[in-house]
Specification:
Enolase-like, domain 1; four-stranded antiparallel beta sheet; 12 helices; globular; 346 residues; Uridine Diphospho-n-acetylenolpyruvylglucosamine Reductase, domain 3
Length: 346
């Protein structure tokens, strides 16, 4: 059984100025880039705009350029292009890694960086057909008044499940935006809100009505940072993450594994991607099993998995520690056997 999409008018602007003008003329219009998220939502009547603005004809949004000590990545660069770009692989390998395990090859060939940054939050009660949602009286995020995950609350727990944002948070990325009110730059750490109905904030940092992401500017690490991205999902080839972790470390002494600075960020566990606070206390410490155990507890206090996926929240919570251990073992070769020995006697 199918349900027709709500009719909409499709616009194909030739440049950014025309796209922004259309967004100002038609409040509520949605931008379309790769379409891997929006088109599915249109078909399920989750998104029902009267106007859709396709960005495919606009030049200049699909480039990766070096700008001084930063890399500027256009919002229409695809995940496949990002994962294979020589400079991204050489200077920001953690970002290339995260982009390279988004969904499957077909999706990576269409999905864009801008779309990944504003991916709609997901929940098993929300990402369903219109008929399924209608039969269950909808939900707080769309057309309903009760959240099945937390029925007594007024908060939406739909999880933000994109792979590149936690990496970009750790890398201090800055977004270049433009809209009907002009252009501005926003640090990614100020961009997200905390309600799953729409994870993008609307004050100070978040998207204003009609705004468009043009590019992402990432300062290239001047110190020898090392970073990895870990991801847990049901199927290893196509699924959204059940949990994701970006970890970066800068060594004071790489041989002794003494930490100068360490950063962690999580995705798919909260309504927004989140930096793990408190990691500055590890400066000057060795990355040993005790430090990893403390980092796991720290990350566990930040990640708040709810009943938004097919997996039990307790499983996803347990996987936070597993991801921390795997990331640490990759960043500090030789640490793995010690972690395994500790687990054996725990």
């Amino acid at each position: 059984m199918t349900y027709p999409m709500r009719p909409f008018e499709l616009h194909r602007p030739a440049d950014v100025a025309e796209a922004v003008a259309l967004a100002g003329e038609y409040p509520g219009a949605q931008y379309l880039a790769g379409g891997t998220d929006l088109v599915v939502n249109l078909r399920r009547r989750i998104a029902e705009p009267d106007h859709v603005i396709a960005l495919g004809a606009i030049e200049g949004l699909g480039e990766v350029t070096r700008e001084g000590n930063a890399l500027a990545i256009g919002a229409r660069v695809t995940m496949a292009e990002l994962a294979a770009h020589p400079e991204v692989m050489a200077r920001l390998p953690m970002l290339a890694e995260a982009a390279g395990i988004v969904a499957g090859p077909t999706i990576r060939g269409m999905a864009t960086l801008g779309g990944n940054l504003v991916l709609d939050t997901r929940c098993r009660y929300y990402n369903q057909s219109f008929f399924w949602r209608q039969a269950n009286d909808f939900c707080l995020k769309k057309d309903g008044s009760v959240c099945p995950v937390a029925p007594r609350g007024s908060f939406c727990w739909a999880a933000f499940s994109a792979d590149t944002p936690p990496v970009l948070l750790a890398l201090d990325a800055v977004l270049e935006l433009t809209g009907p009110k002009g252009g501005r730059k926003v640090p990614l750490r100020n961009f997200y809100g905390n309600d799953g109905r729409w994870s993008i904030g609307e004050a100070d940092g978040g998207l204003l009505p009609g705004e468009l992401i043009l590019r992402v500017r990432i300062p290239l690490p001047q110190a020898p940072w090392h970073g990895v991205y870990e991801k847990v999902r049901v199927r290893g080839s196509i699924d959204y993450p059940l949990a994701g972790l970006a970890m970066m470390v800068r060594w004071k002494d790489e041989t002794a594994r003494e930490i100068a600075e360490l950063r962690m960020a999580l995705t798919a566990l909260n309504p927004q991607p989140m930096m793990v606070p408190g990691t500055e206390v590890f400066s000057g410490r060795e990355l040993d099993p005790d430090a990893v155990a403390e980092l796991s507890r720290l990350a566990g206090r930040t990640g708040k998995p709810m009943r938004t996926t097919v997996s039990d929240p307790a499983y996803r919570r347990a996987m936070i520690a597993t991801m921390v251990e795997k990331a640490a073992a990759r960043l500090a070769p030789g640490l793995g056997p010690a972690l395994l020995q500790q687990a054996r006697w725990a």
